[in-house]
Amino acid sequence: xxxxxxxDTKPEQIVRKLLWDNGFRYRLHKKxxxxxxxxxxxxxxxxxxxxxxxxxxxxCKNFKWPQSNEEFWxxxxxxxxxxxxxxxxxxxxxxxxxxxIWECExxxxxxxxxxxxxxxxxxxx
Length: 125
Fold this sequence. Notes:
Shape: globular
Structural class: alpha+beta
Largest sheet: 4 strands, mixed
CATH topology: Endonuclease, Chain A
Number of helices: 3
Radius of gyration: 15 Å
CATH architecture: 3-Layer(aba) Sandwich
Number of domains: 1
CATH superfamily: VSR Endonuclease
Strand order of the largest sheet: 1-2-3-4
């Protein structure tokens, strides 16, 4: 697990390139916000999290419970999901809006819909 990156992951880089190519400027990993969002738009008070389906327990085909060391993985993954919810609530209390982009949304045909999803999130008031 020591080789698993917490930031600057491939899915995150894809989202950042999509944003940059479409004229959106942002900050990265703002440490003073709950959950240290991956991408932050300070003036808009909006944040984007790019979550891996496995690590954050997404209900999709990419998530399967590991067969070995089950107790450890359940505790780890459930803890991640619970921490995500707490951080989302804290962000909302600070009047920040957030968007979660899942790893599976960045692959294949789903990438086409991602641009629209991001545009709607960033351009809404």
